[in-house]
Amino acid sequence: MDHASVSRIRTGLTLLLAAVTLAAATPAAVGATSPVPSPAHGAADPDGTRRTGSAWLPYWGDTEEAFQDALQHADQLHTVSPFWYEASAATVKSHPGAGSIRMIDGLHEAGIKVVPTVTETLAADEMADLMHDPERRTAHVDALMELVQSRAYDGLDLDYERMAVTGDSAARDRVRTGYNALAKDLCARLHARGKQCVITVMARARGNGKAFDYEELGKVADRIRIMGYDLHWAGGEAGPLSATDWYEDFLRYATDTIPRNRIEVSFPGYGWDWTTGVKARAHHLTWKEADALRRQEGVGYHFDDASGTPYFTYQKGGRTHEVWYQDARGVRAHMPLLEKYGVQGTGLWALGFEDPDTWAALRGE
Questions:
Q1: Residues 307 and 242 sit within 8 Å (Cβ to Cβ)
Q2: Does the pLDDT value for residue 45 go beyond 90?
């Protein structure tokens, strides 16, 4: 048989295979609006590992340590979200180090998807106006799509918090409905390109998180990441960042409104240092910094069984400091709540912050 005949046969087989592939793919592709299936939530990878976790990688601090932390625990991580971008009306700003090809390639080589996080700068009123204006909303989504195509990214994580804590209740009502429209548009366009759409939300419990419509967002996003922290925050009174009964509250609501396999609960690897009697914001501490401070001040380790979090107090400059944070023991206290509500997805804020034993706690050990 001559080369021309072999070439014709190969060409015919190639066309036949393409036709079969297209026919199989077309019914699911035409008019598809459902999220792209994710390998997360307990699905076994080809190497036999079970990756149920995601984690954020901060752009400040020791980013190399955070990167190596991800690689060291790749067998548990399906996704890493570098905290690299900030969106305004129709532009996206890069933080220092954003788009590092070395890190993107390194995470991919470890079998980890790279889904960078985008925050927003606009307050509730401005953001609501933008999202309810089809033309401005499209421009905003265009900027996000340009970003996701700028590198070998696997999707985007929207962590839009400022709009959820500013303005009055009426503004946040408009934010909620507008965000539904924005998420629907963005997720559809991401899915059309085979990219993941992840939405990070505040816990819906005790009057908080009302700017996020769990039910509608859960219909369009691949994953809804619930921030299981800042029950007490830097600008408020001292107290635990998370608590067992609080987890019960928001997990009950979340699992009533979002498919369980799309939920991730993110645990804190940090804490806050409040100064008693002072209205200034609390000082942020990673677990490593909190533990080092406790040892430096020579104070004992205390664990609050009611909340499931550690704490300690110390004296400085004639004032009492109260530190609440989270460690592996606390994560172990809260993991049974995820099991109770059938949630396998976990997250961590943030890489390089955490008690090293947290990884075993997230495995249920």
A1: yes
A2: no
Give tens-digit pLDDT for 255-271. 999 999 999 999 999 99
DSSP for 21-62 reads HHHHHHHHHTT--SPPP-S-TTPBPTTS-B--EEEEE-SSS-
Output the furthest CA–CA distance in the chain (Å, rounded): 95
Instruction: Name the residue with higher pLDDT: 46 or 359.
Output: 359
- Residues 335-344: what's their mean pLDDT? 98
Structure-token match 């999202």, residue found: 131
Superfamily of domain covering 53-227: Glycosidases (3.20.20.80)
Q: Can you list the pairs that 89-92 forms with residues at least 24 positions away whose Cβ atoms lie under 8 Å?
A: 89/122, 89/126, 89/130, 89/136, 89/139, 89/140, 90/136, 90/139, 90/140, 90/142, 90/143, 91/143, 92/118, 92/143, 92/144, 92/146, 92/147
